[in-house]
Recover the amino acids of this structure.
């Protein structure tokens, strides 16, 4: 079944990016609140592509994948503090391993369902913290210099 492509920027959209750029393989911050649940739900409706300035750099895509898997593990641990949506998803696909391993397996399945391109895909929609929608009228370049992403 065809699903439209939803292209997501990584830093500032999935990764909270509060520490700023540390290199393509260093991803120190937690996810943006709600990002993990959004990814899980959006995969039902879209062909997700995560693109970043890290994507074309050595080790960048691998680092994002590892970070995302570990983020699912961190969100699920400890079991008593695991959000209900994640507890239900992990439990539904449990492999009778430890809770941490089941959460890691769930995160791995999510990562495998996502595309990790090195070039911008022909997306139906792109979500990026450093973009604006073009409405047919060009903004004064001096005004563009005042742009700030949501977290600043």
């Amino acid at each position: 079944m065809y699903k439209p492509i939803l292209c997501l920027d990584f830093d500032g959209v999935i990764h909270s990016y509060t520490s700023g750029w540390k290199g393509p393989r260093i991803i120190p911050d937690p996810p943006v609140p709600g990002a993990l649940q959004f990814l899980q739900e959006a995969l039902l409706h879209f062909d997700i592509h995560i693109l970043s300035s890290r994507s074309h750099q050595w080790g960048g895509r691998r680092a994002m994948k590892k970070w995302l898997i570990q983020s699912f593990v961190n969100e699920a641990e400890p079991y008593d503090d695991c959000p209900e949506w994640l507890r239900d998803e992990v439990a539904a696909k449990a492999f009778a391993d430890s809770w941490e391993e089941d959460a890691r397996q769930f995160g791995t399945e999510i990562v495998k369902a996502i595309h990790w391109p090195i070039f911008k895909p022909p997306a139906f929609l792109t979500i990026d913290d450093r973009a604006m929608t073009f409405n047919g009228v060009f903004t004064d370049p001096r005004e563009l210099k005042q742009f700030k992403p949501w977290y600043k």
